[in-house]
Every structure is written in structure tokens, then in C-alpha cells.
């Protein structure tokens, strides 16, 4: 029996949902340990699409127990709608297979107002400006929690405590935002969600303690470089997608990475193909619009921005939560090594290699340069800690032969090179969109 964690190694959107869905078959308990409805995990099953924002992706297995954990920022109205929608799609969700930690902090509407206020204030600010958040109120839920004006899920469910906590927090909110919110109106607005969610209240720590002999899977949302402590601050989310957000003795940590890299929202990405401001303006391409793009890339005539646009189209790199176009770039080894070291990742799951199918050549960033000098891996952490220096690093690339399909030996060579450079094995390879398009090389639930 083992505790296994699945963590994003990049800036989120690594395809964790699918890996979690696959591993959930071997687990008894699945816990989403942090983040909120800013996340969007997509699972395709028999051509039907299921999107999870607040509920763990293990919910598609009715016999497993799922937890929205202590470290989550939980939006009750969004969660209620999500549960109802999943139930409408035929998914079984009841207190028998799903619990919400009383320690999770609730995200309420005034958090979103606060976020908008901050983003407007920062717009155009020198050296940074907006974070370009998902606008779900995640940052303020985190900062209110730290300011001791947050509200826990257990409190939210208790009308008396919730009312008192609202009185307190609205003094703070009304004073700083100039609003005139009334506790009574808030109480009413959330009544239905409170009644609906009440049966799901649970205490995660006690539950995990009592079920220590089971296989437990910890589901990360977002990715390492969005971590509030270890990410590319300040362009990060407000919780800990890394191992820091879990707080249990984990047996195996699986790091999920795409065969390339993406990022959505503001902030630097060293291997970006093109330009963030340009990416933001782009819409989805129709298949007939990207015919000929691959040939152009393979003739060596495409610009970086065009390669990025092609990857975005083929990889469907548009946010599951916000629909925003994602920046695309080449696989970045220094970042993956850093993510390995932050979370003590002991194997990799590689996803979406098929998006690169048909490319004559692909690149891997093996190292960074700063001021013309190579940076040793041990120095990467201290550079990411400083936004000005991290914005200046330049990638050094190794060019590799591309592949036609994932059965091609060139794809094996690509994966072997990643394995060699990162220094840990690959345990899982995702080979396509569907649930069964997956190869498991090492079973993480077997203790080694
Ligand atoms: P927030 O989490 O909404 O505060 O957004 C902060 C940053 O994290 C922004 O750059 C978002 O685009 C990014 N972000 C938040 N959630 C996700 C996710 O699930 N996938 C990818 N990026 C995310």
C-alpha cells in the first residue's frame, strides 16, 4: 500500500487529469490537495468529455473515495454547479464517495472583486503588471486566509459562524474596496450551496489516518512554476502545487510533463516560441487553416511564432477553465530538474508527444545562459528566485530528429535523452487523448 503524488512539472496543463484518472484505478482514495476552481482537468471517456474544476478526477470511479482537501480554495457555488452537472452526465457523486475538508477555505464573490481591483491597479505597472489570473478569486482567497479573515468550509456550513465571520470580513472588504456588502445578503446568496454541500463535510486528516493501509493518490492542480513559494513569482497562483502542498509521507512522486511546454497568463517562459502578447490575440485555428503549416516548418521556413501557433492548434492549447490561448515552447530540462528537486520527484510521466508527430526536428533546452555564460543546474533555483534574472535567461538547445508516430524509434530516443538529462526514470507515457492511450512502465503503487 502506498501514497502516491502526481505533480505538474511545468506551468500547469501538463495532462495530469488523464494520468490521475489512470492511476485512480489502482488507488482507493484520491485527494485534490490544493488550488481551486482555477484548475481544469479534462478526461475523455467514450468520446464524452468530463471537466473537473473542484472535484477530484477520481470521481469517475464510483467505488473510490474522493476528497477535496485541506489546502483547497473551494468555491461553493461553482462546486455545487459542477457536481450537479457531473450528476447530470451520469456520474455518481454522494457522501459515500466524496468528501470536502472542513479546513478548505471558501472562495466567495468578494474575493473576485478584490482580484479585479488588484489586477486593475497593477495594469501597466512597471516590471510586471498584471498576473493575468483565471479571475476565480484564488489570490484573494489565499491572502484573506493569511490575513486571518478567511472562512473555512466547516464555518461556511454553520449559519451562525458563517454570519459572524462575514460581519468581520466585510468590515475589511468594504473598507478597502469601498463596497457596501451586507452579511445578511451574503448569507442568503449562499444558502442553497450550503444546504447542498452540507452532507459532504469531512475531516481529511482523520480520514487519511484511519485509512493508512489503503492506496492513496494525491492529485495536484496547476504546476511547479505556479507554486506561490517556488514558482516564477509573482506570476504564480496562491497555493502550493508542489510537494509542499501535501504534507504526508509520500512513497512516490510522479512528475507530469508535456513533451513540450506551455504557459497561460503573464510571466516569463524561457523556451517560448513567439511572443506572449501575440499569443493572447490568437483564436483557435480550423483544421484547414493549419494545412501546409507543418510542411513549412519542416522546410525550415517557419518563424518561431508560427511553430508556436502550430503546436497550439495541434495540441489544442487553450485553457480548460478560461479558453485562453497558451504560449507554447520547447521542452525545458533546467526547469524539469528544478521541479524534480523541489518535490523530490522520482519518476516522470510524459504526455502529448503525439502533438509533435510529423516534425522533422524537435528541440530540447538542455541548459540556460545568462550574460553569455552557462548556468550550472545548482544555480537555477537562485535565478528563478529573482524575477529580473529569470526574465533574462536564454535557452541553449539540442536539436533532435523528429518522429512520425510514437512507435517511431526517434521518439524512444527523445524520451531516453530526457531521462538521461533529468536523471530519473519515466514511469508513464501518455500516447493519446483517450483513457486507454497510456503505457505504464513502472507501477508507482508498488513500494520500492
Ligand atoms: P490564479 O491561479 O487564477 O490566481 O492565476 C495565477 C496564474 O496561474 C495565472 O498565470 C494563471 O493563468 C495560472 N493558472 C492558474 N490555474 C491554472 C491552471 O489550472 N493551468 C494553468 N495555469 C493556471
Q: How is the secondary structure organized here?
A:
Elements (H helix, E strand, L loop, with lengths): L2 E6 L7 H9 L4 E7 L5 E5 L2 E5 L12 E10 L1 H13 L9 E4 L3 E2 L2 H14 L15 H9 L6 H5 L1 H19 L5 H7 L1 H7 L3 E2 L1 H7 L5 E4 L32 E7 L2 E3 L12 H6 L5 H4 L2 H6 L5 H11 L12 E3 L1 E2 H11 L3 E5 L9 E10 L2 E3 L1 H8 L2 H4 L3 E8 L7 H14 L3 E5 L7 E3 L8
The protein binds inosinic acid (IMP).
Inosinic acid binds next to helix 4.
Account of the 3D structure:
Strand 5, helix 2 and strand 6 form a beta-alpha-beta unit. This protein has three domains: 156 residues, Adenylosuccinate Synthetase, Chain A, domain 1, CATH 3.40.440.10; 90 residues, Adenylosuccinate Synthetase, subunit A, domain 2 (Orthogonal Bundle); 180 residues, Adenylosuccinate Synthetase, subunit A, domain 3 (Adenylosuccinate Synthetase, Chain A, domain 3, Alpha-Beta Complex). It has 448 residues and is α/β, with parallel strands linked by helices. It is 34% helix and 21% strand. The protein is globular. It has 17 helices and 19 strands. The site of inosinic acid has 21 residues, from helix 4. Inosinic acid binds next to helix 4.
Amino acid at each position: 500500500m502506498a501514497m502516491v503524488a502526481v505533480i505538474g512539472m511545468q506551468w500547469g496543463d501538463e495532462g495530469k487529469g488523464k494520468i490521475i484518472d489512470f492511476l485512480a484505478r489502482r488507488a482507493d482514495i484520491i485527494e485534490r490537495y490544493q488550488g481551486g476552481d482555477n484548475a481544469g482537468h479534462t478526461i475523455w471517456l467514450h468520446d464524452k468529455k468530463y471537466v473537473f474544476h473542484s472535484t477530484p478526477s477520481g470521481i469517475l470511479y464510483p467505488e473510490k473515495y474522493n476528497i477535496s482537501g485541506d489546502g483547497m480554495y473551494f468555491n461553493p457555488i461553482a462546486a455545487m454547479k459542477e457536481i450537479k452537472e457531473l450528476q447530470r452526465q451520469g456520474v455518481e457523486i454522494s457522501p459515500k464517495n466524496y468528501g470536502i475538508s472542513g479546513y478548505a477555505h471558501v472562495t466567495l464573490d468578494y474575493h473576485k472583486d478584490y482580484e479585479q481591483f488588484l489586477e486593475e491597479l497593477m495594469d501597466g505597472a512597471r516590471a510586471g503588471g498584471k498576473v493575468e489570473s483565471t479571475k476565480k478569486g484564488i489570490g484573494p482567497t489565499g491572502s484573506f486566509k493569511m490575513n486571518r479573515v478567511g472562512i473555512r468550509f466547516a464555518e461556511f456550513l454553520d449559519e451562525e459562524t458563517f454570519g459572524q465571520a462575514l460581519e468581520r470580513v466585510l468590515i475589511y472588504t468594504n473598507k478597502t474596496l469601498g463596497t457596501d456588502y451586507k452579511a445578511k445578503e451574503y448569507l442568503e446568496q449562499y444558502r442553497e450551496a450550503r444546504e447542498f454541500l452540507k452532507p459532504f463535510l469531512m475531516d481529511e486528516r482523520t480520514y487519511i489516518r484511519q485509512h493508512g493501509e489503503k492506496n492513496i493518490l494525491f492529485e495536484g492542480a496547476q504546476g511547479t512554476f505556479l507554486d506561490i513559494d517556488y514558482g516564477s513569482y509573482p506570476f504564480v497562483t496562491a497555493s502550493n502545487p508542489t510537494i509542499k502542498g501535501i504534507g504526508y509521507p509520500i512513497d512516490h512522486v510522479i512528475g507530469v510533463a508535456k513533451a513540450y511546454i506551455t504557459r497561460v497568463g503573464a510571466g516569463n517562459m524561457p523556451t517560448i516560441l513567439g511572443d506572449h502578447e501575440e499569443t493572447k490575440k490568437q483564436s483557435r485555428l480550423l483544421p484547414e487553416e493549419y494545412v501546409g503549416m507543418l510542411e513549412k516548418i519542416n522546410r525550415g521556413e517557419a518563424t518561431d511564432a508560427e511553430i508556436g501557433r502550430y503546436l497550439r492548434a495541434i495540441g489544442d492549447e487553450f485553457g480548460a477553465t478560461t479558453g485562453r490561448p497558451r504560449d507554447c515552447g520547447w521542452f525545458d530540462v533546467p526547469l524539469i530538474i528544478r521541479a524534480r528537486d523541489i518535490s523530490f520527484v522520482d519518476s516522470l510521466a510524459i504526455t502529448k508527444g503525439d502533438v509533435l508527430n510529423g516534425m522533422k526536428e524537435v528541440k530540447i533546452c538542455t541548459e540556460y545562459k545568462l550574460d553569455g555564460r552557462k548556468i550550472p543546474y545548482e544555480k537555477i533555483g537562485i535565478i528563478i528566485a529573482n524575477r529580473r534574472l529569470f526574465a533574462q535567461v536564454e535557452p541553449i538547445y539540442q536539436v533532435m530528429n523528429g518522429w512520425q508516430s510514437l512507435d517511431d524509434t526517434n521518439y524512444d530516443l527523445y524520451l531516453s535523452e530526457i531521462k538521461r538529462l533529468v536523471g530519473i526514470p519515466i514511469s508513464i507515457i501518455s500516447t493519446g487523448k483517450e483513457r486507454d492511450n497510456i503505457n505504464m512502465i513502472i507501477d508507482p503503487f508498488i513500494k520500492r
